[in-house]
């Protein structure tokens, strides 16, 4: 693997940032949620702008509610995890489900995407052979997804931000070791209220890929571990 610009130019960083980088390089990959630092290398201004300033970024012309960091992380995660099922809570305009399905298709995976929203996207957007959009309220998460039969590995993306602790508790019971749950937009207020089940460990490799917690899922790219 070729060297990153950062490795070649580490001395450009301040001493404390160099130390941060060294810590990221040596930390274990999977870390209990309560042991993680709550610091962030991405200034809040840059982070807020990273979804687009004038408009949200788009996929196939449809508004996609991702930061540029997550837009880079998720393709790498899908390639590594090779999910058989992607479960999304909060479809938005449908772009995220379609984007992930397009990625899976380009990777020649047989992944299917199931995307639930209290108000599903408009009908002409919903047509994709790998995506099932359906109506559902995450306040009644039990029985919304066919958790007994959907093949694993799973990547679950929580992007509705409603009753997140209950959603985590529910899915955790059905997840297999190695399945992932990404709770998006946890930077800020939501982070302080999270009760992450102890079997779900932070994947520090992805959370810190572009610097400490350079993702909307601050400390919440979670992998079920055998603990
Ligand atoms: C931030 S958007 C999702 C963005 C999308 N995942 C993306 O990346 O483009 C949040 C979505 O959550 C949905 N939502 C809000 N409350 C909900 C609930 N109780 N159950 C299910 N979906 C809900 C909204 O309708 C909205 O479409």
Task: Give short descriptive properties of this protein.
single chain, 227 residues, alpha/beta, Rossmann fold, 8-stranded mixed beta sheet, two-stranded antiparallel ribbon, 8 helices, 30% helix, 18% strand, globular, binds S-adenosylmethionine
Poorly predicted regions are none
Question: What share of the residues does DSSP label as strand, in percent?
Answer: 15-25%
CATH topology: Rossmann fold
Q: What order do the SSEs take from the amino end to the carboxyl end, as H and E?
A: HHEHEEHEHEEEHEHEHE
* Helix coverage percent: 25-40%
Kindly report the average pLDDT value: 95
Distance between the termini: 32 Å
| Overall radius of gyration | 17 Å
Total count of helical runs of at least 4 residues: 8
CATH superfamily: Vaccinia Virus protein VP39
| Major sheet attributes | 8 strands, mixed
Small molecules in complex: S-adenosylmethionine
Instruction: Note the overall shape.
Output: globular
Gross CATH architecture: 3-Layer(aba) Sandwich
Number of extended strands = 10
User: How many individual domains?
Assistant: 1
Widest sheet, order of strands = 1-9-10-8-7-4-5-6
Structural class: alpha/beta
CATH domain class name: Alpha Beta
